[in-house]
Amino acid sequence: MIKPLGIQKKLNIDDLIIDESQFSGEEDIPLDVVFVGAGPAGLSGAIKLAQLSKKENLNLEIGVLEKASELGGHSLSGAVINPKAFLELFNEKKIEDFPFKNKITKEKVLFLTKNNSFRLPTPPTMHNKGNYTASLCEIVKFLGKEAENLGINIFTGFPAKNLLLNGNKITGVRTTPSGLNRDSSKGPQHTASVNIKAKITVLCEGSRGPLAQSYIQKESLTGRSQQIYALGVKELWQVPKNLDHIVHTLAWPLDSSDFGGSWIYPMGENKVSIGLVIGLDYKKHSVDVHTKLQHLKQHPVFKKILKDGKILEWGAKTIPEGGWDALPTKLYGDNILIAGDAAGFVNVPALKGIHYSMYSGIFAAQSAFEALKKEDCSKNQLSSYQEMINNSFIKKDLTSVKEIRPSFKKGFIIGGIKAGLLSLKLNALVFKNPPVKEDAEEVKSSDSDPETLPVNPDINILSKVDGVYLSGNKTRDDIPCHLNSEKDIDKKTAEFYAALCPAGVYEWQDNKLVINSPNCIDCKATDVLGPRWEAREGGSGPNYKEM
Q: What's the pTM value of the predicted model, to 2 decimals?
């Protein structure tokens, strides 16, 4: 048996949140507000803040930090998008002005066995008519262009490594140095860290952001439940025929004790995205989401669509699944706010997160704007952000489904029954679930054999190394390792890490764990269950184009 928490390094808060005084004398970049992460939350927040400042003639310096070398390079989602946040943020634009792909008019939910499928009624939470498929990369690029047009400073290739502290106040962030050799000595292209000082810091790092994690832990802000995660692996395909509907599936190739499902979405002319998502509270140490996706592609439902097609792009990321009860008890502090996936704004039963992230960024901007006008960025003033969240549709949506994901902790059958009752608003018939433990506390059985790729497949498959190539990985081979593991890792644990990681980072060689860190695509899966992830040189990792 393997209990991941017992062999995982603790989060070192003192390394992540540091006193600014040790850098006195260094040159700073001063801003009014810095958004850490150029995803839907960070860019929407920056845009809203610029709109407000323009409207009231308040000249604000707004910055957005992004660890990828270009906007959208680390952004990945299915994705089906509710357009309401776009229509609010850009009320002068029409729906045709946004980079959406297909308007959804038809959808299917299928129960899969190994060789067959059975259509199920679409659960109320999963109705998508009127929504749109889209590439999150293209969404982020669109938002970035709008932000630049408003004079917002966007710093690509600038990961934030530390939060800066003065007393109880967060005063900004310190970036990661670049150009280091494998042994962390300075190379010929070395660039030192930079301090970016801001009156308000908005953490929008995305799933499993280390700065948000450290601040939540330091301030004891963990919610009723611990945050839990899923891992999604996605492929973009060019196919012979256009698809006119979206597909969601459940059951095979998952075990009945595991939570997850797959999708097939049309992505414009002769393209589809496919993917598989599995909760990281799975039971067997050998579960391999990437390998399962390769088997899924051989299923008749997928084979019919993918036959004679071509794989264009591949990627993976973690998804926060804890819901309302796993949100931090406070999303604010002195001079700091937390938004988007860093906070956990995902509606798992609806398979939606992007518009919640965007709205959280918008609300953060509104709260920050009022604080700056009053020259009061204290936690008391910034608590208005929490009030906006609590008075919005975000709380209503997330609280209405908060018992569904925890119900699947007892397996697919019990979870399905409870979810059905909850979706029919028969809440009184469903017992309230106890607080959820973090994924790393879940014990994994270690008696199963490693999963293997399909033999003689009808549909093209990818090895993990091939997948990393198709992610556009831009990491230097001689970069310092950014994945921190305990030293004494046994073979079974190494097998567990190797199966967990979709990018082939971990191997068992010469009776020890080998970490091929340049392969990492920053999905953060092992940060949940194994070696800790930390911010590395800007521009490292994948360079997604249409994911």
A: 0.97
